[in-house]
């Protein structure tokens, strides 16, 4: 939502400044320039992207518009779900977790937490890691390295779409110049026409340069940065999970595991200690 608000502010500021200087908004409306710049930029993006990265770009754009799902509520649900799982393992034995790991979509624990159920990547990360602990295929010393490998792979997946979108933003001013040059070519073909017609065509050509720069620095580059922040938020969420899994593997009590993970979260998403404690007591 914030990215929509920010984009509206950019548009309003530019148009207001233009009209205050005596400009007329209709003189900025040249669909041919937008088609040239937008089409060329889209074609370049498709050309530079592997198929999977292209899909990730569009998924990232949708997530950017919706906003980050890794808010305080998501962390509260994560902590409560993990607390229930770790408490079950502590009092009923680790084998009690097998059914929850094998079919998380049918789990009586996971099903109580919708934000976690929607996050299939996080769910797989939790279940696959717990499964290794349950069947003793990994030691507490080996686990951190395996978890870090998963997180590094996640970071690498984020790098592709962010890099591609950033390079597209860098190229937009150049495509604006291409549109301007084409506009000048059209102008030269009508150079012996009325002054008003020549002036209009020159203005249309300059709009191409304007649009290329505005789209780059006003829209595409900010979206790329926002995607980077969302990628960092997802990585932080997975590192919180990893902290709890490592605590479980080292036989720490569920309350200690949760508290250690809570303290490692950013202040804007960190649940209040007293409220979380009350929520955990309700699960006992």
Biggest pleated sheet: none
Strand content: under 5%
H and E string: HHHHHHHHHHH
Tell me the distance between the termini.
38 Å
Q: How many distinct folded domains?
A: 1
Which regions are unreliable across 5 or more consecutive residues at pLDDT < 50?
A: none
Q: Give the number of DSSP strands.
A: 0
Instruction: Let me know the average pLDDT.
Output: 90
Radius of gyration: 26 Å
Shape: elongated
**How would you classify the quaternary structure?**
single chain
Helix count equals: 11
**Class computed from helices, strands and strand pairing:** mainly alpha
In percent, how helical is the residue content? over 70%
Task: Describe the structure in your own words.
With about 280 residues, the protein is mostly helical. The protein has one domain (about 30-284). The protein has 11 helices and no strands. It has helices at about 1-20, 30-50, 50-65, 70-90, 100, 115-120, 120-135, 145-190, 195-250, 255-265, 275-284. The radius of gyration is 26 Å and the shape is elongated. About 30% of the residues are buried. The mean pLDDT is about 90.
List the helices and strands and how they pair.
Blueprint: H1 2-20, H2 31-48, H3 51-66, H4 72-92, H5 98-102, H6 114-118, H7 120-134, H8 143-189, H9 195-249, H10 254-263, H11 273-283
What's a concise summary of this model?
Helix 4 (72-92) packs across helix 11 (273-283). The protein contains 11 helices and no strands. It has helices at residues 2-20, 31-48, 51-66, 72-92, 98-102, 114-118, 120-134, 143-189, 195-249, 254-263, 273-283.
């Amino acid at each position: 939502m914030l990215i929509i608000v920010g984009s509206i502010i950019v548009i309003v500021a530019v148009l207001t400044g233009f009209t205050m200087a005596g400009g007329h908004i209709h003189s900025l409306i040249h669909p041919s320039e937008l088609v040239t710049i937008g089409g060329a930029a889209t074609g370049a993006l498709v050309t530079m992207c592997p198929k999977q990265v292209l899909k990730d770009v569009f998924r990232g754009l949708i997530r950017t518009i919706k906003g980050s799902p890794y808010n305080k509520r998501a962390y509260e649900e994560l902590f409560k779900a993990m607390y229930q799982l770790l408490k079950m393992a502590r009092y009923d034995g680790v084998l009690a977790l097998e059914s929850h790991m094998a079919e998380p979509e049918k789990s009586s624990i996971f099903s109580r937490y919708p934000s976690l159920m929607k996050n299939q990547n996080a769910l797989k990360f939790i279940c696959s890691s717990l499964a290794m602990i349950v069947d003793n295929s990994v030691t507490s010393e080996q686990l951190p390295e395996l978890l870090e490998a998963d997180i590094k792979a996640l970071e690498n997946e984020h790098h592709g779409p962010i890099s591609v979108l950033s390079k597209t933003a860098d190229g937009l001013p150049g495509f604006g110049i291409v549109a301007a040059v084409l506009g000048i070519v059209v102008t030269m073909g009508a150079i012996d026409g009325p002054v008003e017609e020549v002036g209009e065509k020159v203005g249309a050509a300059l709009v191409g340069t304007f649009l290329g720069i505005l789209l780059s620095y006003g829209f595409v580059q900010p979206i790329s940065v926002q995607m980077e922040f969302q990628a960092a938020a997802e990585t932080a969420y997975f590192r919180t999970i990893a902290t709890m899994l490592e605590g479980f593997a080292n036989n720490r009590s569920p309350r200690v595991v949760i508290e250690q993970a809570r303290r490692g979260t950013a202040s804007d998403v960190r649940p209040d200690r007293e409220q979380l404690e009350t929520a955990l007591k309700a699960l006992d």
